[in-house]
Amino acid sequence: MNKYMIYLNSKRCIGCHGCEVHCKTNKDLPVGPFLCEISHEPLKAVKGVPKTEYHFRSCYHCEDPYCVPICPTGAMKKREDGIVYVDTEACIGCMACAGACPWHIPQYNPNTGKAVKCDYCMDRVDAGLKPACVTKCTTRALKFVTIQEL
Amino acid sequence: MRKTVWSMCSMCSVRCPIKVEVEDGKVKWIEGNPHLLKGALCAKGSAGIALQRDSERPQQPLIRRGGRGAGKWEPVSWYTALDYVADKMNKIKEKYGAKAMMLSCRGGPWQDMWKTFIHGFGSPNFTNHDSGCGRNVHHASKSVYGLGRKGFIYDLKNAKHLISFGRNLMASLRVAEVNQIMDMLDNGGSFTYVDVRQTLTGIKATRFFQVRPGTDYALALGMINEVIKQEAYDKEFIEKYTTGFDKMAEFVEQYTAEWAAKECGIKVKKIKDFVSEIGQQRPSVVFHPGWMLSRYKDSFYASRMLHILNVLMGSVEVKGGQQFPKTPADCGVKGLRTFSSLVPKPEDKRADGVGWKYKHFDKGPGLFHLFYDAMLTGEPYPIKGVICYRHDPFNCFPDVAAQKEAFDNCELLVSIDTHYSEFGWYSDVILPESMYLERETPVVTQKGPKPRFAFRDRAVEPRFDTKPSWEIFKMLADRLGMSEYFPYNNAEEMWQFQLEPTGFTIDDLREKGFVALTDEPIMYDRDNLEGKFKTPSGKIEFVSQMLEENGLPSFKPYESPHKPPKGRFRLIFGRSPVHAHGHTINNPLLNELMPENTLWINSRVANRMGISEGDWVDVIADSQKGTIRAHVTDFIHPEAVYTVHGFGRQVPLQSRAYHAGMSDQKLQEGLLEMMDPAGGGLCLCEKFVTVRRSPRNPRRRVEL
Fold first, then answer.
1. What is the percent of chain B with per-residue pLDDT over 90, rounded to a whole number?
2. Cα separation of B560 and B218, whole Å?
3. In what order do the strands lie in the sheet with B17-23?
């Protein structure tokens, strides 16, 4: 059972794309890969005000991820708490994971020659912190939610 | 080894407080100061790391060897470069007098040091970028309150209604301010937004007025008329603290809400509903008086009316309204010692005419664009040397070709900057400043409900042969025989000099990047504000003595803006949240998010012209042309086209930004001389451009 998720309060989001850069700098990524993205709906007038909804997407950390079994070296792993991550030591950069993923979430990191994806910044989470995108979200629109079983 | 360094961001001019984590001399993490911003930071703030690692910035002092702008640079040592500049400055002094040198900067909290430098040299000609930015708002504020535009802060978090006339708050992105607005909206506050197009800010509004370009003044007048008609104003406050209300009421009588609605192209009921709403919500109502209002011929008067609307709401020193920024003195703390206190004031008149020819303008930084006249005509005296410290006139002011013509009469152009500015590329000497993570800056006072002292510490050593500005100016001052105005040898001594009267030490500031001078916010007694308004009468002046004495009307009769002829459009420019004007276009991570700008054009108009989304369009002024892709949208007024400012850069060493997108300021031909005589601001939206579908759009696929 997945323990975590990232939730975007679209009402507070201002579409500044800060999260995307917070993520990239924390993971030391060059130009190219993005591990999360902000998108928005086309503008639509609501009571005379053109409005939009913002969406945030990183990785869905599927309950039964396609990217894990396809990995030839076992580098793509799912933790007990549901986080799907790349073991960079084992990754050979074949990108089979990206091909298997319906949303092509895993990205190729040209600096390391390996796959990279959102792992909720698990090193930070394990240290009691929140993912980079949530920690530094400009308007605190992103929340790192721990899912509790009822 | 890991360490935490307290600093201030410098990716844009907001200067958010930041915490920097450094490991083995490498910047690993930047976040908003948790004590003040709870970690929040924008995209630009995080991309500071990319700037630090980028090599496409000046790496050592450069002296020009070819023609101006030819890009032939000789890398030299600091000693050679500084000797060269000092020698040229001395020659100018001998030949034309010290006053023939001028220095410009970006404004902001560190002006004291740069002003000290140029005043110490003997020239009164200190200036900044503001005549292409906020001067109209500043002078409008002075005319009403006798206080500059920073004479008030806005308690947006507790406001019941925020009104913004085109101030694109979410894209300009002051992190603390944006959070206050989001908190206000979460608490059920209202937000009215006025613009010629929809923006990142407008989509958060509860009410939106899409007005015809150039009619802000009309809408403000109509609102005042309606406020008076509905008696929605704070009579007690007006009675106690203001003069000239009746004259103002008489003036606005003709400008009814019905008239304004017609002029602006909006519904009159919406104006009337708006006014009855703010009448209920006052005094916790804030009319944002504008920021970058160097836009229309009447922007000064529009801003005056926005200031006046705040007064009518009684929004002065109230929760959820305008408040006086409190100073160290309000906390019983002595202020910082200034460097300028060591320097005698230069006696010469300013070359821009401010203070003697134009007595109603603020003498502090004067008006940069008026120096071009002195360069061209030698009147009132020649300007022969220019130092631009982190200010890029070619990016900030219109009509670059006209500016170059004036600069060509100068014998020395120096750029001190962290990156290649367009001006720097044209200048004679580039003195590279260390980027903000690699340098210290002097301590600053941050006024507000809880005033504080803050500073920037050095996080990492400079990657290249660059220096912090405190050292550059000190070394130049030593060569020019004015060491006594820079009484320090290192950053620690500089801070000690500043902090000595306050009783604090730099170690106090090093604890969390600042020291707060009070625990609880300070409020003045709203019933005893006498002496707080610095107008000649000591009251808030609807009829401004300052303006009237200088032959300018307090109330300017409204003139309807010209409608562009068929096929032409009013060129409007603005901000994006991922770029700070031209400074960040070449930043690898920000360039990746937004590599070029587009031209917004109304969909009905575009349809008639055969322009589709993504088509190349030519944007043509008199002799200049730009070609960018069209963004076709319903949400811009058909008379206007819009683009993000800062693109179309022409520095070849900035490979990512080079010729990407279009520069609006190059198209603003003829606008360098179009100044608002009352406000001092330039009128940068008074340019019509021709737009056509570009022949660059391929009609056939010729190659395989």
1. 98
2. 8
3. B2-8, B17-23, B26-32
Q: What is the pLDDT of residue A1?
A: 74
Closest chain A residue to B171 measured between Cα atoms?
A16
Domains of chain A, by residue range, sit at 4-146
Tell me the mean pLDDT in the region A86-104.
98
Residue pair B200/B181 in contact by the 8 Å Cβ criterion:
no
Give the Cα separation of A144 and A135 in Å (integer). 9
Q: How far apart are CA B53 and CA B704, in angstroms?
A: 41
Contact B170 A15 (CB under 8 A): yes
pLDDT at position A149 is 65
CATH number for the domain whose boundaries are B62-133+334-516: 3.40.50.740
pLDDT in tens, B425-470: 999 999 999 999 999 999 999 999 999 999 999 999 999 999 999 9
pLDDT at A148: 80
Two structure tokens written together for B201: 């800010």
Q: Is the pLDDT of residue A2 over 90?
A: no
- Can you give the pLDDT at residue A150? 61
The C-alpha atoms of residue B349 and residue B369 are separated, in whole angstroms, by: 16
Report in angstroms the alpha-carbon separations of B620 from B570, B574, B669, B686: 12, 19, 11, 14
Q: Given CATH 3.90.550.50, say whether it is the number of domain B153-323+526-549.
A: no
Please write the tens of the pLDDT for every residue from B6-33.
999 999 999 999 999 999 999 999 999 9
Return the domain boundaries, chain B.
2-53, 62-133+334-516, 153-323+526-549, 568-693
Q: A4-146: what fold?
A: Alpha-Beta Plaits (3.30.70)
CA separation, residue B45 to residues A136, B395, B501, B589 (Å) = 10, 21, 33, 11
Residues B377, B2: Cα–Cα separation, whole Å: 57
Task: Say yes or no to pLDDT of A6 above 90.
Answer: yes
With an 8 Å Cβ cutoff, is B182 touching chain A? yes
Among B565, B561, B567, B544, which residue's Cα sits nearest to residue B678? B544
Helix (H, G, I), strand (E, B) or coil at B194: strand
CA-CA distance, A36 to A59, in Å (whole number)?
A: 8
Chain A residues with beta carbon closer than 8 angstroms to that of B198: 43, 50
Strands B412-417 and B429-432: parallel
Distance, in Å, from the CA atom of B595 to the CA atom of A31, rounded to the nearest integer, reads 12
Is the predicted pLDDT of residue A21 greater than 80, yes or no?
Answer: yes
Cβ of B185 within 8 Å of Cβ of A30? The answer is no
- Chain B residues with beta carbon closer than 8 angstroms to that of A24: 46, 589
Instruction: Determine contact: A8 vs chain B, CB below 8 A.
Output: no
Nearest to B41 among A50, A52, A136 (CB): A136
Can you tell me whether residue B597 is helix, strand or coil?
coil
Residue B541, token pair as written in the block? 């002046």
Write the ipTM.
Answer: 0.97
Q: Which residue bears the tokens 């043509």?
A: B620
Q: Which of A18, A30, A50 sits opposite B203 (nearest CB)?
A: A50
CB B365 within 8 A of CB B356: no
pLDDT per residue as tens digits for the range B71-104: 999 999 999 999 999 999 999 999 999 999 999 9
Going by CATH, does the domain composed of B2-53 fall within 2.20.25.90?
Answer: yes
CA distance A131 to A26: 9
Q: What is the pLDDT of residues B103-138, one digit of tens each?
A: 999 888 999 999 999 999 999 999 999 999 999 999
